[in-house]
Amino acid sequence: MKKVFIDGAAGTTGLNIHARLAKRNDVEVIEIDEDKRKDISERKRLMNMADVVFLCLPDDAAREAVTLIENETTCVIDTSTAHRCADGWTYGFPELTGIEKIKNSKRIANPGCHATGFISSVAPLVKLGIIDPGETLSCFSLTGYSGGGKKMIAQYESDGKTKFQSSPGIYSLSQEHKHLPEMQKLCSLDKKPVFCPVVDDYLEGMATTVTVDGNENRTADSVRQALSEFYKDSKLISVKSKGDTPPTIYANEKAGLDSLEIIVCGNDDRITVTALFDNLGKGACGSAIENMNIVLGLGETTGLII
Fold this sequence. Notes:
The chain is of the alpha/beta class. The protein has ten helices and 13 strands. A seven-stranded mixed sheet has the order 8-9-7-10-13-12-11. Strands 2-1-3-4-6-5 form a six-stranded parallel sheet, sandwiched between helices.
């Protein structure tokens, strides 16, 4: 049986990955004693025993953790921002990167949550020539408060929650959000998009929306058709048909699921493309487990909720 170690299992992503894998009988989660969680020698020993190591750590700690792995057969799946644009690392988005490339990689950078929504919509359209790499794109992305980790969850669920936390909050106002480099790189854009992340008073779920102008070669219908064709063989990403487009999109519609749905709205002049998914599903833990499944030669969607 393949062995898995989670370094940083006490955080939100680590806890969720652990809970999911604990229900499975096709992988063994190597446990570390609670009093040795910060013991470098013990972490190193367990990492080098594992077939797959999940890094659920802050960026600097993730970079340090990689240096502890000496076993060339151990595959690392890093859920932090540290290696998403780094040389020698494979970006863990199977639908875009390719399953074979991920399967053969020992260093996989799991995508960011907001980045997952943006890249799933924009990267195919750039690749197909529907969006020009030189365009200035605008994106707003709604997320539940679980995207902020244990500290933010505690703030939103405490008795001392402020009145402002009952309403949407626009953050990262400096346009320097940590997901921007991977959004630009993976979509082959000449410049970073104008990006407005928004956190709101619900636990989980994301709706990431990109807006583009229409023209004679780009309409809502043509964008929808192009994305449908691009993802026609995907097991986890789908595109909603025009006839099924809802009057309102709610950001928590995919909460609890590991799939992602793209909804194209608008007309010949103004188009919105919304990626709807769970920030803890396809935006974090679900995609990490999807990558693990591919690396270990298991079914891509094993243990996932679609």
